[in-house]
Amino acid sequence: MSVMKCREQPIFTTRAHVFQIDPNTKKNWVPASKQAVTVSYFYDVTRNSYRIISVDGAKVIINSTITPNMTFTKTSQKFGQWADSRANTVFGLGFSSEQQLTKFAEKFLEVKEAARLARDKSQEKIETSSNHSQASSINGTDDEKASHAGPADTHLKSENDKLKIALTQSAANVKKWEVELQTLRESNARLTAALQESAASAEQWKRQFSVCRDENDRLRHKIDELEEQCSEINREKEKNTQLKRRIEELESELREKETELKDLRKQSEIIPQLMSECEYVSEKLEAAERDNQNLEDKVRSLKTDIEESKYRQRHLKVELKNFLEVLDGKIDDLHDFRRGLSKLGTDN
């Protein structure tokens, strides 16, 4: 563990929810962590390589070596994914903010470019070693033909043999890398197809989400209508309660009137007097109604006078405003005239 710490150093760290594509369906995401975990970029100084590593407790859930052929794709504002052909899976990361996703994607591009440069340098070293080995082999043949035997020739021959072995191993490694590259290409094709299926599935999820959202809006509108109907029902209940109380009051008044009617029947001998009083009250009532009509006419007349007064006041305000504007202009002209007189007096 200490050797790995000395050899690999973290260069970028963030936190995210980790997912892996379902190996059976190649469509659905399977959570690899129950909560947000640390996700780090590591640089291997010895191998000159980069890895993305994430550990949940004692379990390693991401161990992905970055190659120049990898691509990090943003599928939403807070979610991104990349395919690892060596691990034969697709990793997904869910971030808490779009800014964290953007930083991780930028670091992925940076590390991917660094991996490409490291691969190019490695190929250049292999080609240089191969050329040097061929040149040494030719020189060794010429030295054998020259028939100058000695310690230096023996050393050169030994070095030539070593270079031949290195060249053979390099050719074997090249073939091995070609096979591995072909395998990676095939795996990349499979992962690309899985990624396309995942994108199609994501579009389907988006459409389902849109349908659910529309249905949710419709249900909310329906709930609002039902709440409004419930409010109307409650208002009707209150009105019914008020009507019941009014009916009870009227029934009570009716009973009182019946009692009064009984009393009046008992006092029928004073009906003529009551009729006279009733006529007197009617006359008073008619007189009061006439007075009330006169008062209403006066009120309407007063309202008309008030409206006319308000109109005259607005008209007077407008005229006063115009007069003040003209007065301000005259005052400005007078000030200009006085300044002109003062200037003429000064000039004289």
UniProtKB/TrEMBL annotation:
<keyword id="KW-1009">Hearing</keyword>
<keyword id="KW-0966">Cell projection</keyword>
<protein>
    <recommendedName>
        <fullName>Homer protein homolog 2</fullName>
    </recommendedName>
</protein>
<dbReference type="GO" id="GO:0014069">
    <property type="term" value="C:postsynaptic density"/>
</dbReference>
<dbReference type="InterPro" id="IPR000697">
    <property type="entry name" value="WH1/EVH1_dom"/>
</dbReference>
<dbReference type="GO" id="GO:0005737">
    <property type="term" value="C:cytoplasm"/>
</dbReference>
<feature type="compositionally biased region" description="Polar residues">
    <location>
        <begin position="128"/>
        <end position="140"/>
    </location>
</feature>
<feature type="coiled-coil region">
    <location>
        <begin position="174"/>
        <end position="312"/>
    </location>
</feature>
<dbReference type="GO" id="GO:0032420">
    <property type="term" value="C:stereocilium"/>
</dbReference>
<dbReference type="GO" id="GO:0035256">
    <property type="term" value="F:G protein-coupled glutamate receptor binding"/>
</dbReference>
<feature type="domain" description="WH1">
    <location>
        <begin position="3"/>
        <end position="115"/>
    </location>
</feature>
<comment type="similarity">
    <text>Belongs to the Homer family.</text>
</comment>
<dbReference type="GO" id="GO:0007605">
    <property type="term" value="P:sensory perception of sound"/>
</dbReference>
<keyword id="KW-0963">Cytoplasm</keyword>
<keyword id="KW-0175">Coiled coil</keyword>
<dbReference type="InterPro" id="IPR045027">
    <property type="entry name" value="Homer"/>
</dbReference>
<dbReference type="GO" id="GO:0007216">
    <property type="term" value="P:G protein-coupled glutamate receptor signaling pathway"/>
</dbReference>
<dbReference type="InterPro" id="IPR044100">
    <property type="entry name" value="Homer_EVH1"/>
</dbReference>
<feature type="region of interest" description="Disordered">
    <location>
        <begin position="120"/>
        <end position="158"/>
    </location>
</feature>
<dbReference type="GO" id="GO:0005886">
    <property type="term" value="C:plasma membrane"/>
</dbReference>
<dbReference type="InterPro" id="IPR011993">
    <property type="entry name" value="PH-like_dom_sf"/>
</dbReference>
<keyword id="KW-0472">Membrane</keyword>
<dbReference type="Pfam" id="PF00568">
    <property type="entry name" value="WH1"/>
</dbReference>
<keyword id="KW-1003">Cell membrane</keyword>
<keyword id="KW-0770">Synapse</keyword>
